[in-house]
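User: Hi! I'm working on a homework problem where we have to compare a predicted structure to a textbook description. Could you give me the structure for the chain below?
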Amino acid sequence: MNDVLFEIVHKMTQQRDSDSLQRALLIGLMDVLPLHEAALYRPVGEGSVMHMEQLLEVKRSPDEGATGNSCEVIDNIIELSLATYVNKCMEQAELLVDEEPSIYRMLIPLTIDHKIKMVLSLNGEKQVSKSHDFIKNVIKIYENFSAVLDGSERDKLTGLFNRRTFDAKLKRMLKAQKTRQHKYIPDQKKSDERNLSPNASAWLVILDVDFFKRVNDRFGHIVGDEILLEIAQRMTDCFRRADYLFRFGGEEFVIILEPISCEMAKNVLERFRKTIADYKFPLIGEITVSLGFARITENDFPVTILSRADEALYYAKEHGRNCVYNYEQLIDEGKLEKTVVKGSVDIF
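Assistant: Happy to help. Predicted structure tokens:
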């Protein structure tokens, strides 16, 4: 078993981003254990609106016997029967077993930097129970290496994703846009519920702090950094975990919003803009932000989408700041001229 453990560890430590590490974990366990499927779940939302969402699933191909796996990313709400067990696993912060005549499922909380970030579900034959210690050892190694990778993907000041992770996260969101069918548990009736409608799509947002240079010039960079930290915290509080938050450098932030309608996207961004405008920052008092956003489509290069959102942001800066504008709406209203951005896929 030591050789098997070494092989899984070898494959996991070859990865250089968290998404591929998750795949390596699931596929590695599927390769050596009698499992039918393995999946990762994460909590989405806060408080009474929190639910569990499936991040990644690996299933055994029925015609390939004990070997061979198909791997796919699924962003969807899990079935309610399993949600109860996953929530219980997170609450108790310990391994749980769901054992029925036709199923043997292990649920394991994954802790990164002393916080439960995901739940691992392993569904297979009952003899999997004999491998509890082996699975725990794999999980410990995964958690340690995941913490290392997570640190390399995060901005050192704010803890948000850094620019180098942008392409991978954008591709992931586009794939989620294709596969997602539901957004909330059906009995939820929240007025701000993000439902998936026929015209829903992911959105790229560029956010810039208004007159930030004046803050640095007057109060110094230490206070400036504190302002950026506060804004990053407000972003984390206001946006969902299914959205991706980045700091691109300086006072510029980027957000990839999960698939929603344009109207809903604007409402979400307006709510955030108002949150910042109403917040009293230490020493500074009031700070405002300007935001521009554009639709994300599969046919455009990342540099094209960024350029469109940047045009909308520039329009916001030129028309009073502390406001939100959508690129496509500006085009439709004749306030911007559509431009074609030529360049490679690599935006760096």
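For your comparison, note the following. The first helix runs from residue 2 to 12. Residues 181-192, 344-348 have pLDDT under 50 and may be disordered. Good luck with the assignment!
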